[in-house]
Amino acid sequence: MKILVLNAGSSSLKYQLIEMPAETVKCVGIVERIGMQDAIFTHEKDDKKHTEVLPILNHEIGLKKVAEALLNKELGVISSVDDIEAVGHRVVHGGNKFSKTVIVNQEVKDNIKELFDLAPLHNPANLTGIEIAENIFTSAKQIAIFDTAFHQTMPREAYQYAIANSYLDEHKIRAYGFHGTSHKYVSEKAIEYLGKKSKNLLSIHLGNGCSITAIKDGKCIDTSLGLGPANGLIMGTRSGDIDHSVVFFLMKKFNKTAEEVNNLLQKQSGMKGLTGFSDLREISEKAASGNEDCQNALNLAAYRIKKYIGAYATILNGLDAIIFTAGIGENSAIMRKLACENLDFLGINLDEKKNKVRSKEIREIQTESSKVKVLIIPTNEEIEIAKQSYNLIK
């Protein structure tokens, strides 16, 4: 079964065509800078890469360009759009309406639209991708996979905020969590890898966006992101946890609007706010060269991760393994090292030589005496989306 996986962002469109159930990736690509005259389209098949700079003024033009590439005699992988049996769509926010993957119908689209306020940068683009795909891939089933779905198993004490109950009951204000597709994928890989020694897991997703999830017996019981993807760990441009008094102080002291403070905390804070840079590779290089701001930022980010490891180890009543995943989690030896330092009392001991080895496979980087396994597991949200789409149809 050929499944097209789509991730429609506000100005981008990522895609992969995956053959299921073999999980074979036939091609990958991305449309960037949608809405611009100089948009960038990239399509890769095997070792062949095709790139174009051209005007792509909206998502419809972008997705038509994707379909054109999929049908191309040289770079394509299908002979007709009808060869695609399903299109799996990443949808960021499912609220409390969606706890599992669903086939898209009008009710599903209406519910996604109702959640625009909770994810104004993501859900509108996600819905646009669905509606355009319906018109291009007319014989395919449209499948919605929600970033928040994996976290719907959290108990009330984990997701409710300490504000009047009516805000939860009437307005659904609560913690939802994100990166659920990634956390689900790597935790299942860990369970498969560890077998019975996988009761209590921590999945640490470190990229431009970051989150940590506590997983007991394969189910999420707590996660660091909440109503929106802004709190918890320090991220590329987002502050993570912050005293809400800071928000009111900024508004009063500097006469900032709510929108201006939101922009500050979402786009100008985190590692970028601390250093002037948002790319961890550059920050790590400058830290190694003696840049004090960059050294401080790495320490702050690691300190925040360790606080959550300690808190979630308590909630889980013990740890069997912690998982590092996503771009930074998989590739930054320095961040893994700093995040695992001085956690001996939890039974976490990192082997520095193993930590520096790069590989695309699952690997253990703890010492022989470590009671807790420390794993690096490459995430693959596209494969997880394809797998969930395939299982739903079958």
Automatic annotation (TrEMBL):
EC number: 2.7.2.1
Any single biological process term in GO: acetate metabolic process
Molecular function GO terms recorded: acetate kinase activity; ATP binding; magnesium ion binding
Pathway(s) the chain acts in: Metabolic intermediate biosynthesis; acetyl-CoA biosynthesis; acetyl-CoA from acetate: step 1/2
Assembly description: Homodimer.
Gene3D superfamilies tied to this protein: 3.30.420.40
Active site location: D147
Its biological purpose: Catalyzes the formation of acetyl phosphate from acetate and ATP. Can also catalyze the reverse reaction.
Pfam assignment, any one: Acetate_kinase
Alphabetized NCBIfam families for the sequence: ackA (TIGR00016)
UniProt cross-references to SUPFAM superfamilies, sorted A to Z: Actin-like ATPase domain
Taxonomic superkingdom: Bacteria
Location(s), subcellular: Cytoplasm
Protein family membership: Belongs to the acetokinase family.
Name by which UniProt lists this protein: Acetate kinase
Cofactor note: Mg(2+). Can also accept Mn(2+).
Residues reported in the UniProt entry to bind ATP: K14, H205, L206, G207, N208, G209, D279, L280, R281, G327, I328, G329, E330, N331
